[in-house]
Amino acid sequence: MSKQPTLHSFASTEDLKASLSTYIVSAQNTALAKHNVFRVAVSGGSLPAMLSDLLKNPEIKWDKWEIFFADERIVPLDHEDSNYGLLKNVLLDKIEGTKPVVHTINPDLEPSECAEDYQDILIKSFAAGDSVKFPVFDLILLGMGPDGHTCSLFPGHELLREEYAWVASIEDSPKPPPKRITLTLPVVNHASKIAFVGTGASKNEVLKQVFGSGAEVLPVGLVNMGAGDRVTWFCDVAATEGVPGFPQRKGSKA
Ligand SMILES: O=C1O[C@H](COP(=O)(O)O)[C@@H](O)[C@H](O)[C@H]1O
Question: Looking at this predicted complex, what is its ipTM?
Fold first, then answer.
């Protein structure tokens, strides 16, 4: 059986959003059949805007969703840099009927306390006893920076070596704002499913590296290699142009 990630390249953002929505419904239904709750972690940046098709999908059961943040900037929740604030504006506020449970950070805490506090939220939600090494998210929805970062895991940063913590803080993020919390690499790599969304020419070079040589120095590459066939990429033609081993056809897979 193939252990390779799946890479989709869409001709339009509309096609990408529709396919992502179908994929998320499938992940949701698998999770609900297993434990009657859908635990999903969401990124900020360009990702939330790609989720708008969920709002018109009748199969989405928002009342069964628990939403976490794959990473979050330590700023007030209504600040323009807040990943929660962004998700609220583009998605949460538009949901009709019962809303999902959304686990926000406490931005009044110092970074290390903020990470500890968020980890405690995960421990409670996953009802994790001491024997549970890492939580298993049903789905983690990730973006990718042009530098190869994902969550708030940046290339060459010591956080990439974290082996035990579920959530970690960072105070020197190369991309502002500097203070953030993030799921750690082992938590991301333990998820049942991981979807990356990467669109536009600014993501092309990094995508070539992820599927070519030098992937192991990039956080996105480490997830792609670590989680293998649990990873699905939702990209556009501008991002996948010249990606090694990838035929340039709409909807084709690596
Ligand atoms: O700072 C962040 O950047 C990444 C990538 O953002 P994008 O705009 O290039 O998609 C994002 O996934 C992360 O959640 C965010 O905090």
Answer: 0.98
The alpha carbon of 4 and the centre of ligand 1 are apart by a number of angstroms equal to 24
Ranges of beta strands (E only) in 100-183 are 101-102, 139-142, 167-170, 180-183
pLDDT in tens, 208-243: 999 999 999 999 999 999 999 999 999 999 999 999
Instruction: Give residue 254's pLDDT band: very low, low, confident or very high (50, 70, 90).
Output: low
Report how far residue 221's alpha carbon sits from residue 210's, in angstroms, rounded to the nearest whole number: 5
Mutate-to-test residue for ligand 1 from 51, 152, 169, 183, highest number of ligand atoms within 8 A of CB? 152
What's the pLDDT tens digit per position in 161-185?
999 999 999 999 999 999 999 999 9
> By alpha-carbon position, which residue is closest to atom 12 of ligand 1?
143
Distance (Å) from CA 214 to ligand 1 centroid:
21
What whole-number distance in Å separates Cα of residue 214 and Cα of residue 224?
Answer: 12
Distance 144 CA to ligand 1 centre (A): 6
Alpha carbon distance 30, 36 (integer Å): 9
Domains in the chain, ordered, with CATH?
A: 6-240 (3.40.50.1360)
